[in-house]
Specification:
This protein is α+β, with helices and mostly antiparallel strands. 30% of the residues lie in helices and 33% in strands.
């Protein structure tokens, strides 16, 4: 048995399994719709033949198993796929790996609990709600049990003690040199995306730094993880009453650890209400980070659109949402 990361050559197999087992590539869980066909995949092979598929999504420092299909029961396929997913979650420093199953899936409940998962939530009527988004979900499931509810299971990989404490501290005048140093690192990261050049002193200078110490409606915080300075967050208020994420930075050594996610959540909690944020269309790191954060903090619908010249110097993905 070999479990490997799926790739373009597996596209037909992924499509065939998802449509055959799930009715389509669209999967609804926790009132969210995934296009499972576009998610990262794990493929189990036996003697060169694909015999299992797992799709997953990483969100807010957790790894969700979205679909999970063994095409040969009692051959260790499911166990191999699931343990490989756990390895990925651990390597990415995820807090937990979790999934949703249905009230009729008694075999799945046995399988997951034997492999360290615990039931953490019951959502009565969730399948009935999902059926409105995906009418093909049957009314009756395994063993002629009415298909009505979702059950969430998780396997915790890191305790809160291991995560440490993430705090925001308001920037004051004595912090100006510290913020300037961090902004130099931030702009260096952007130099490959925006084509910025060093000044004659070998420095990347942030033109709006002084504004954060004299203008109302501007906010800046230093981000700390336990005893370490790890980044900053900067926000400005717009004329329409929204607050905009101006700049946000976490040092490279602390990325993909959940620190950025927790710092961003704390930033939004500091100023509840309507928000706007944008990231460059070419910024792959931001594209992987911000949609997940927004999905977690938004209290209602999220508006998403692409803005380009003349309204923006570069093409940006823009999110508008409310946190209150």
């Amino acid at each position: 048995m070999e479990v490997r990361q799926g790739g373009p050559k597996d596209r037909a197999f992924v499509e065939r399994v998802l449509v055959g087992r799930w009715g389509s590539t669209s999967v609804v869980s926790r009132n969210r719709t995934h296009d499972a066909g576009s998610l990262p995949t794990l493929v189990a092979e036996s003697d060169g033949v694909a015999v299992g598929l797992l799709t997953y999504a990483e969100l807010n420092g957790d790894l969700e198993v979205v679909t999970f299909d063994s095409l040969g029961p009692r051959k260790g396929i499911g166990t191999a796929l699931l343990e490989r997913a756990v390895e990925i979650a651990v390597a990415r420093n995820c807090h937990r790996i979790w999934l949703v199953t249905t009230n009729d899936n008694l075999a799945a409940l046995r399988f997951y609990q034997r492999r360290g998962f615990r039931m953490v939530a019951l959502r009565p009527g969730a399948i009935e709600a999902a059926r409105r988004a995906k009418p093909g979900i049957p009314a009756v499931g395994n063993d002629r049990i009415p298909l009505t509810d979702e059950i969430e299971l998780e396997r915790v990989l890191r305790s809160p003690d291991q995560e440490g404490t993430v705090t925001l501290r308001r920037v004051t005048e004595p912090d100006r040199p510290v913020l300037a140093n961090l902004l130099h690192l931030y702009l260096h990261d952007f130099s490959s995306i925006r084509g910025r050049e060093l000044d004659d002193d070998g420095w990347y200078t942030y033109r709006y730094l002084d504004n954060y110490f004299v203008e109302r409606g501007r906010h800046a915080w230093l981000i700390r993880h336990d005893d370490h300075l790890v980044g900053f967050a900067m926000v400005r208020e717009l004329e329409d009453g929204r607050r905009a994420v101006a700049e946000f930075f976490v040092a490279r050594a602390h990325r993909r650890s959940g620190i950025g996610r927790r710092a961003a959540a704390a930033m939004f909690a500091e100023l509840p209400g309507p928000w706007e944020l944008g990231h460059d269309l070419d910024n792959d790191e931001a594209a992987a980070f911000w949609p997940r954060v927004v999905d977690a903090v938004a209290a209602g619908p999220v508006e998403r659109f692409v803005l380009g010249p003349p309204h923006s110097t570069v093409e940006q993905v823009v999110f508008r949402f409310d946190t209150a």
